[in-house]
Amino acid sequence: MITLIFPTKKLFRRAFYTSPLIAALITSPFFIRPSSTLLNGVYAIIIITLFIFTVFAINIGLIYLTEKYKPNRSINYVRYILSYAICISLAFFVRFILMHIFSDFETRIGPSPGNTHSGNIDKWHIFPSLMFNFCLNTVILIIQDLIMLREKQAMFELENAQLKIKNIEATNQQLRQQIHPHFLFNSLNTLKNLIKKRPEMAEEYLVKLSDFLRSSISPGNKNVIKVEDELKISLDYLEMQKIRFNDALKYAFDIPGETGKKFLPSFSLQLLVENAIKHNALTEEVPLQINVRYKEGRIIVSNNVQKKQVAEESTGIGLANLAERYKIISGDELIINPTEDVFSVSIKVLENESSNHRG
Prior knowledge:
Layout (H helix, E strand, L loop, with lengths): L7 H24 L6 H31 L4 H27 L6 H4 L13 H55 L1 H19 L1 H19 L6 E3 H19 L3 E6 L8 E3 L2 H11 L9 E8 L2 E7 L13 H13 L4 E4 L3 E7 L11
Parallel strand pairs: 2-4
Antiparallel strand pairs: 1-3, 4-5, 5-7, 6-7
Helix pairs in contact: 1-2, 2-3, 2-5, 3-5, 5-10, 6-7, 7-8, 8-9, 9-10
């Protein structure tokens, strides 16, 4: 769960930029009056800027306390009430200072100290001042609440993205874990048959199986591995199957050397060649030909179609599993092109280990 980091710097930065702009806007009418002086105007801008910045700072402090103690509607209402009360009280203090700075404020905010009516503030001067400060504080609250809303939204989006990534990784790991037991089950069945029918080949097959498992373990728990490593695993697998089927199985690889440094989902090519052997009849008269080639950024695994008279029972893991894993990792789709004579699957290579739809 992500905890909201209070955006102190961002709030004070907005206050620093906004305060003099609002102050200049407020005092601009006094610069065009004949009785006003430049010096008095500058004093007024400085004091009003400090006042507005102070109001910003007070509201930042109130927001901090509200966020610290787990905000709810009632606490926010208290924050707003305190904010207006403090702002209006501070405003009358600043008004008193301004009345001593330049006398031509008398007609707008009350008499100056030199005036005989300095002790009597007309009620008609108080009401506009109250309204002005109420509006000013409202603007400040809106600015700060918008900043806080954006920060919370960004945190929620980050949290959702992290949860999505964790879910994708968990799903991908779950799918990958189904591959090893599936392959090992088939290999042990093959080894059992070799021991019964061709014991002289069983030992060689066992050595190849050991090499294959060693190669398949080396990538560890990585979701993607280099193309050259995936080719090594696929070749080890095909050599094992060559022991089993002899001349009934043929294969060819045409992959440029530079492609080997790119990446593929682990066990992707191996699963495709396994799928070709699993779903086709293999005879020495009409051997199964598996071709693995590179074309325009994709590796294409194809084979001639030789349907079995009796279909082998499927576990439902194979090609659908790979398609889902590949989409999770890369956000891309496999291109499956089945025809009467040739079945091919095209998979796009990844340029680097972190090439995925999240990045």
